[in-house]
Amino acid sequence: DTGVSQDPRHKITKRGQNVTFRCDPISEHNRLYWYRQTLGQGPEFLTYFQNEAQLEKSRLLSDRFSAERPKGSFSTLEIQRTEQGDSAMYLCASSRQGPDQPQHFGDGTRLSIL
Amino acid sequence: TQLLEQSPQFLSIQEGENLTVYCNSSSVFSSLQWYRQEPGEGPVLLVTVVTGGEVKKLKRLTFQFGDARKDSSLHITAAQPGDTGLYLCAVPHNAGGTSYGKLTFGQGTILTVHP
């Protein structure tokens, strides 16, 4: 169990640029989740995958956000035309399928928009 | 309106003191989880409580699920500087035995324990 890995850990970019984050889940976990967390607040759900299928997207996930998990393993989260309000920590988590299966979180990607 | 209301939002105490953090809602949950998050890291699951009235202990941490499964508390005895962090409660979205996967978190309690 090598844990959930996220890359990069930090990203600084100018407003209007596109950014892409990667998440590598725990290998035997078929569920993968993306959350966003602002300073001093709890994480907010963005979207989740079961294998390669994206099963739910939050209203927080505007048209500028897209997530993929093409082979049911790693996932990418892309933000196009970044805005100041996109500055946050983006957390990835993975779990096995089933009720009350614990989610294991990565250490996140901190995005700062200049 | 937050589904889960955590209180207090901030807590600053001296080493050796006891403290309690609360997580309240008007909704009934099948289970509730507590996480601890340190700066620059992801949340780490501490415990899951499932049964109304359940009490679980993890060293100096005691977790209780309300009888009606609407609220929970986390009590820390003899706090230490290493307990410093953001404490989050969270509930999974389950309905009719189907797990919908996503977690809804409270806004968290930021705990600082001074030496």
Identify the notable features of this structure and list them briefly:
heterodimer, A: 114 residues, mainly beta, 7-stranded mixed β-sheet, 4-stranded antiparallel β-sheet, 0% helix, globular, B: 115 residues, 5-stranded antiparallel β-sheet
Characterization of this structure:
The complex is a heterodimer of chains A (114) and B (115). Chain A is mostly beta strands. In chain A, strands 2, 4, 5, 6, 9, 10 and 11 form a 7-stranded mixed β-sheet that branches. A 4-stranded antiparallel β-sheet of chain A has the order 1-3-8-7, with no helix packed on it. In chain A, a hairpin with a 6-residue loop joins strand 7 and strand 8. Chain B has 115 residues and is an all-beta fold. Chain B has no helices and 11 strands. In chain B, strands 2, 4, 5, 9, 10 and 11 form a 6-stranded mixed β-sheet that branches. The mean pLDDT of chain B is 91. The chains are: A mainly beta (114), B mainly beta (115).
Helices, strands, pairings?
The complex is a heterodimer of chains A (114) and B (115).
Chain A: E1 5-7, E2 10-13, E3 19-24, E4 31-37, E5 44-50, E6 53-57, E7 65-68, E8 75-79, E9 88-95, E10 104-105, E11 109-113
Parallel strand pairs in A: 2-11
Antiparallel strand pairs in A: 1-3, 3-8, 4-5, 4-9, 5-6, 7-8, 9-10, 9-11
Chain B: E1 5-7, E2 10-14, E3 19-24, E4 32-37, E5 44-49, E6 55-58, E7 61-65, E8 71-76, E9 85-95, E10 98-105, E11 109-114
Parallel strand pairs in B: 2-11
Antiparallel strand pairs in B: 1-3, 3-8, 4-5, 4-9, 6-7, 7-8, 9-10, 9-11
